[in-house]
Design brief:
Blueprint: H1 3-24, E1 27-35, E2 46-50, H2 63-71, E3 76-80, H3 91-102, E4 107-110, H4 113-116, H5 120-132, E5 136-137, E6 141-147, E7 150-157, H6 166-171, E8 179-183, H7 189-194, E9 199-202, E10 211-212, E11 216-217, E12 219-220, E13 224-225, E14 232-236, E15 239-243, E16 261-269
Parallel strand pairs: 1-16, 2-3, 3-4, 4-5, 7-8, 8-9, 9-15
Antiparallel strand pairs: 2-16, 6-7, 10-11, 12-13, 14-15
Helix pairs in contact: 3-5
Length: about 270
Amino acid sequence: MKKHHKILITLIILFLIFSIWQNNDLVITEYTYSTEKITKEMEGYRIVQISDLHNKRFGKKQSRLLKAISKEKPDIIVVTGDLVDSNHTNIDIAMEFMEGASKIAPVYYVTGNHENWLKDEDKQKLMGGLSERGIVILNNEITKISCGEESFLLAGLADENLSDATLHELVNEAGDEFVLLLAHEPQYLERYSNEKVDLVLAGHAHGGQIRIPFVGGLVAPDQGFLPQYTSGRHEMSDTTMFISRGLGNSIIPVRVFNRPEIVCVEFRKNSK
């Protein structure tokens, strides 16, 4: 075998090893969030966000994923859509994760675009399975979350209603209360900000799938090439948005410089 063939084969093998690691090694990103609306009672409250699992497994019965979440000691777990993948739907895998997560902390869920694309029978099976396991489905719903004697509002926006008046109707009577919104897609930040939502947790962009060092994500659904909203913290007026890079893949089967991500947000009292 010629030398350059050996080099090529070696490079291919190394890339395959790198790709397997990139697609399966979990990373936890921790954020702190503070505002004058965070009271002393709410300080230290921890939220773990899971997004875009797309039926991917991390260990038997999601053991690696669940262990990583448990270590974060969340007060609640939120799932911001695409729990399943409409191209290779497996409701049982989705239930493995949700059942395990519900034993760690209360779980709140909103749909993503892939749930909207499911066949009716699969959608009914998914929603029924979630309800049976005590998962709170927040599709166009708002609920009060208690933190000791204080509370905040947790709102969930169904993916098919991201661009209509539903959000306005949800938060119209929130007044000065702190509102945390679960919304699958991040590119509607201006709309979320216009409704004076305090904090948004989103996903959908898969971190741009392939991340270019010092540049960011390469491509994202509904945003095209070199998208603006793929990961991290974003601010607009008084609204903060954290974007999860997600855990699984869909159309593009690999991640590059973009390991599967668990997001953890901790509330801090504003020191000002």
